[in-house]
Amino acid sequence: MSGDGSLEHLKREGHIVVVGASLAGLRAAETMREKGFAGALTMIGDEPYEPYDRPPLSKQVLLGKATADRTALPRRRDIDAKWRLGVPATGLDMAARRVRLADGDEVEYDRLLIATGVRARPWPNEDEGALDGVFVLRTRDDGAGLERALAADPRRVLVIGAGFTGSEIASACRERGLAVTVAERGAAPLVGALGGVIGEVAAEMHRDNEVDLRTGVMVTGLEGDPAGRVRAAHLSDGTTIEADVVVVSLGAQRNAEWLAGSGLGAGPRGIACDAGCRAFDIRGIVTDDIYVAGDVARSPHALFGYQFLSLEHWGNAVAQAETAAHNMLSDSADRRPHLWVPAFWSSQFGVNIKSVGVPPMGTEIMITQGSLAERRFAGVYGYQGRVIAAVTFDNCRWLPFYQHQIETGAPFPVPFATVDRRPVGHKPMPADFPDPSVPTHGPTITLSGYSPADRKMTFIPAHH
């Protein structure tokens, strides 16, 4: 569909299919309608619900302050779509422009947007994961089930993994007055996302709030009672923890397996796309009728050396969806790149944590405002002599300033005398990220190489 006439025909009478009834899927659909798309729109989702908001699930819902069924995303406008909910996509025929569904149906498209997101990484032992009282937290049903379990006043909750979600769950448990143990294979909570310097502050927050924090350990097995309820977990250091609720918070898996064998550049790291959100095929050739947005996308970012980034961020999903929708309905001269600066927030143990940029790229960190001891500070990450990211604890007014520093490639160490002239000597120190080849729980940004057909990424058939 090149040239103005065919684009006008697409806008007037074409069929756009969105796979993923998600935040990204919904915002993209709204943007298409805003831009004058008058054709048919089909929304395909594997859950039975229309798009809802996920952040409240680990925050307000677990505290009993909101219910999971009240998390529907507000609509910016009516999208006049045909909804196919509770029916996962199972395959893609690129040549015939068809999406195959689990119920055997096939849906034809003129343009396709893939916004299938990620799912919670399950407990590796399926039988143990199926024990009553073992949870993951990703979906609305997960949130409702876990909240019911916490409301039943369990004797102890075990959270496996101290990334952002695991830490928020532990915080909610303590706010509810529940005994909670956190087991993390890394040296500290949040270490994969923010590095060891900040991880140490996070560890103190856990301990000060009476979390039983165990670091440098792995859970080797879960044990059930004769009735099939979880009752204990065994750790790699030989200890056993009795718990009647276990939350597995081991990060996310990208929902791309359904594309195995399709010829699209999809694998465990997500679906590769160009800066304009157009998907690559497995030969590294860009498609013009398939677009990608949200957590499942890996796209190159100009500010970060054109590395492919996979971002599990709310704001990125919205911005990328809007860019993809714009480009799907535009001639090539009018298309625009997706250049959103990653931004993330978390609330735990009464502290508001926010970051901009890509902290895991940083090799050094410099505390530029406040102090680690007071847990009210701004930290700036440096990489190859420039500012690459910043993080704040209860100090977010500085973030727009540091975002501008990132966008303009400002030098690192930060040269200006800061407003906060404390005598601690604001010197850079190693950011202390774990070896990226060793899995830790929960960097929300994955750096995944330079090429869409990166040969370290194998395209394998889905596991049967």
From TrEMBL:
Pfam families: Pyr_redox_2, Reductase_C. Residues 344-412 form the Reductase C-terminal domain. SUPFAM superfamilies: FAD/NAD(P)-binding domain, FAD/NAD-linked reductases, dimerisation (C-terminal) domain. It comes from the Bacteria. Keywords: FAD, Flavoprotein, Oxidoreductase. InterPro entries: FAD-oxidoreductase/Apoptosis (IPR050446), FAD/NAD-bd_sf (IPR036188), FAD/NAD-binding_dom (IPR023753), FAD/NAD-linked_Rdtase_dimer_sf (IPR016156), Reductase_C (IPR028202). Residues 15-321 form the FAD/NAD(P)-binding domain. Its cofactor is FAD. PANTHER family: APOPTOSIS-INDUCING FACTOR 1, RIESKE DOMAIN-CONTAINING PROTEIN-RELATED. This is FAD-dependent oxidoreductase. It comes from Streptomyces caledonius.
